[in-house]
Amino acid sequence: MGATILTMDEIINAICMHMAERKSVRVQDVQVELSREEDTGYTAEVWIEGRSPFLVESNMIEAILRYTHSEYGIRAYREDVRLELDDEITAVVNTSTV
User: Fold this and answer.
1) What are phi and psi of 75, to 5 degrees?
2) Is 65 a member of any domain?
């Protein structure tokens, strides 16, 4: 009956690690900026070697799932992750079903 809450910094780290692995670059070579817009929802703009792809919410959740597994040992599913916006973007990972 619990949840793990990831801060915005942890979400950024998760995306950096995920994209570095996918693009075969160092984590330090990846920069990420998170945003939430009414029409597009949650997105992440990523800078890698001069390129700037955008990730949509489902891509961000994929990175979060990998991060929670590698850093916390939590195996969760997409439906267990919810992005929220208060003062900053956070991710709530429901661990009660895990």
Assistant:
1) -100, 110
2) yes
Q: Can you tell me which residue has the tokens 């009956």?
A: 1
Asked whether residue 15 is assigned to any structural domain, the reply reads: yes
Buried b (16+ CB within 10 A) or exposed e, 29-58: ebebebeeeeeeebbbebebeeeeeebeee
Q: What's the token pair of residue 3?
A: 């949840």
60-82 per-residue burial string, b: 16 or more CB within 10 A, e: under 16: bbbbbbebbeeeeebebeeebbe
pLDDT confidence of residue 78: 95
Residue-range definition of the domain harbouring residue 64: 3-87
Measured from the Cβ of residue 21, the count of other Cβ atoms closer than 10 Å reads: 13
pLDDT digits (tens, 9 = 90+) for 15-41: 999 999 999 999 999 999 999 999 989
96 located within any domain: no
Return the H-helix or E-strand segment holding 18.
helix 8-23
- The whole-model pTM stands at 0.92
